[in-house]
Amino acid sequence: MSVLTLKQFKLQSFKTAPPYRDENGDWVEGVEEIDTEEPCDAVSAGKANERQFEDGEKKTYTFTIYLDKRCRTYHIGEHVRLVMYENGEPVYHDFSVLGFTRYQMQAKVWV
Q: CB of 59 within 8 A of CB of 98?
């Protein structure tokens, strides 16, 4: 009997701390750090698939990411990282969110 692993990857979202001036008066850019990490499943587009997104533009996406329906809401242009595993080692892929849709049983993010 085989075991099916659903949601075998992780989707990390980031938040950026606001920029500030240090004690010398120098401008310091905000640091980006991981805000949330959610289990997900990702399916490669395989070829250059196009889809019209909520903002009305047709864009080419690389992955469709499937999340639990209770996940946080993702916004177009948001920086996310897909963590996949090869031979037990994490492999990181950084993307910008192209679209997000919440369905009755799941949510989808296109990157």
A: yes
Q: What DSSP string runs through 55-104?
A: TS-EEEEEEEEEEETTSPPP-TT-EEEEEEEETTEEEEEEEE--EEEE-S
Q: Encode 45-60: b = buried (16+ Cβ within 10 Å), e = exposed.
A: eeeeeeeebeeeeeee
Q: How far apart are CA 10 and CA 95, in angstroms?
A: 13
Q: Is the pTM of this model over 0.85?
A: no
Number of neighbours of residue 107 by Cβ within 10 angstroms: 20
pLDDT of 61-97, one tens digit each? 989 999 999 999 999 999 999 999 988 899 999 999 9
